[in-house]
Specification:
IPT/TIG domain-containing protein; flat; Immunoglobulin-like
Length: 481
């Protein structure tokens, strides 16, 4: 019930409580104490000096992956973050009402503060973001994907690892370490055509905790919003592609993975484009070398085996790239085809009289070299050869998922193949029709024990994978009668 001032008795009691706790500088009360990203709430300021301007501040965190030497994954790391979200002016009664939309940010409690021109905080309150998930559609042709977007994920250990299941089978995990708690996953529409069930679960151990929505001390997965969808897989109008890679991004090599060169020099080396797959045509340009001299271009591979305790180091392969002659100004330009090799940064050095005087690098990206055959009866052995699978921990364990069922992983440093080819064989299975193999990035190892992200398909690789946004690889096989 409202009193003669138009303020409800509940709000009046809340204001009095906040005022007792915060002194006489002012009071801030939120219309809602918890909700979801995108909600509209009202920030109610009372008991301030009349006709004064104040800043509104939002306190949160900024997340990233802790990474050593562009290789070893420490785990999620978070730092405090404060943003100005608005400016308000009080009325003649020292009050203001400010409507505000909850931004994309991490879940949990966030302080909202009122600050004066002297940077003094006069009042504060808290708003708690509840994680939730949305799906882009509930019907898709066989072979296409359903996109799930999570909001308000993390940074709490428990709310930083969500699992997605398809027909009660665990596909992989989503996390919101980066992107301020927003994460995206694409789930393949696999057969048979008809209705299927997608569900989001939560558990820091990386596998669904089946009491999420019944007896979890942390409450339901999405605080009451939908986290289970019945989806319809329809017959496609045409046969799917049989092998493809996610769109590749323009990348730069990582100098931390270069070898140390032997001599200081003004010589410069660059390559264009700086990233791509094996077979890419690239141009290497050199400047400030000795005039009319021979320059040896040296390709490097990373060799070793971490499981066997053999350190992985860049090793020169002098017979892969050509030698060139500089002109009268000490410059040269030559065109090469990028050889097949393991992924991540492929260092390239330039040597004069046996001494390496300049270095650059090419960011090798994954490609599907072989996927054959593309159809056959149940039990058909399928040969798969991949190149550009990296040696670093965040990219050297691509995880194979067959019809949304995790199968296992391969390793980018498992063999001694001179071209860095990763070779696997799997057997065709399932009812007659099209079946799908999705190869997702995963994390081979992580120093922090919780939450558990290791050796599992990383479904939110699109916007939350460490170091680099790696692509997934996709294939389709037709099981015949």
């Amino acid at each position: 019930m409202d009193d003669e001032t138009g303020v409800s008795s509940d709000l009046k009691e809340t204001l009095q409580r906040h005022r007792r706790g915060s002194g006489s500088d002012g009071t801030l009360v939120l219309s809602d104490q918890e909700g979801y990203v995108g909600d509209e709430i009202t920030l109610k300021g009372r008991n301030f000096p009349a006709d004064e301007e104040y800043e509104l501040l939002w306190n949160s965190t900024e997340g990233r992956w802790g990474v050593l030497e562009g290789n070893e994954i420490v785990g999620p790391q978070y730092q405090p973050r404060t943003e100005r979200i608005g400016t308000v002016r009080t009325d003649a009664d020292g009050a203001f009402d400010e409507d505000w939309t909850v931004p994309r940010d991490y879940g949990g409690a966030h302080r909202i503060q009122v600050q004066n021109g002297d940077d003094n905080v006069l009042a504060r309150d808290e708003f708690s973001i509840t994680p939730h998930f949305e799906i882009d559609r509930t019907e898709a042709p066989l072979g296409e994907a359903f996109t799930i977007t999570g909001y308000g994920i993390g940074p709490n250990v428990v709310t930083n690892n969500y699992q997605v299941s398809w027909d009660n089978g665990n596909v992989g995990f989503m996390t919101g370490v980066m992107n301020r708690g927003t994460a995206t996953a694409e789930i393949r529409a696999v057969g048979p055509p008809g209705e299927h069930v997608i569900q989001v679960w939560r558990n820091y151990k990386g596998v669904p905790y089946l009491q999420n929505n019944t007896q979890s001390p942390y409450g339901p997965v999405a605080g009451g919003r939908q986290s289970v969808w019945t989806v319809d897989v329809t017959e496609p109008e045409a046969d799917p592609r049989t092998a493809w890679v996610d769109p590749l991004l323009d990348e730069q090599p990582m100098s931390v993975h270069y070898p140390e060169i032997e001599a200081d020099s003004e010589a410069e080396l660059e390559i264009s484009p700086p990233s791509g797959q094996a077979g890419t045509t690239a141009v290497i340009t050199g400047r400030n070398f000795p005039a009319e001299s021979e320059v040896d271009l040296i390709w490097y591979r990373h060799e070793g085996h971490r499981v066997k305790g053999i350190p992985i180091t860049p090793e020169p392969k002098p017979d892969v790239l050509p030698s060139v002659e500089t002109d009268s100004e000490g410059s040269f330009q030559t065109e090469i085809a990028i050889p097949r090799a393991e992924g991540s940064t492929r260092p390239i050095t330039a040597a004069v009289d046996g001494r390496e005087v300049a270095v650059t690098g090419f960011m090798m990206q994954p490609s599907i070299e072989t996927f054959a055959p593309v159809r056959g009866p149940v039990g058909t052995e399928i040969d798969i050869e991949l190149s550009g699978i990296g040696w670093t921990i965040y990219e050297n364990a691509p995880f194979f998922v067959y019809d949304n069922t995790p199968l296992g992983y391969v390793c980018g440093t498992a063999g001694d193949d001179k071209e860095g080819i990763v070779h696997a064989r799997i057997r065709a299975a399932g009812e007659p029709g099209w079946h799908f193999l999705d190869i997702y990035p995963s994390l081979f190892d992580m120093q922090e024990e919780k939450p558990v992200f290791e050796v599992r398909p990383h479904l939110s690789y699109l916007d939350n994978h460490p170091v680099r946004p790696l692509p997934a690889l996709h294939m389709a096989f037709e099981v015949t009668e």
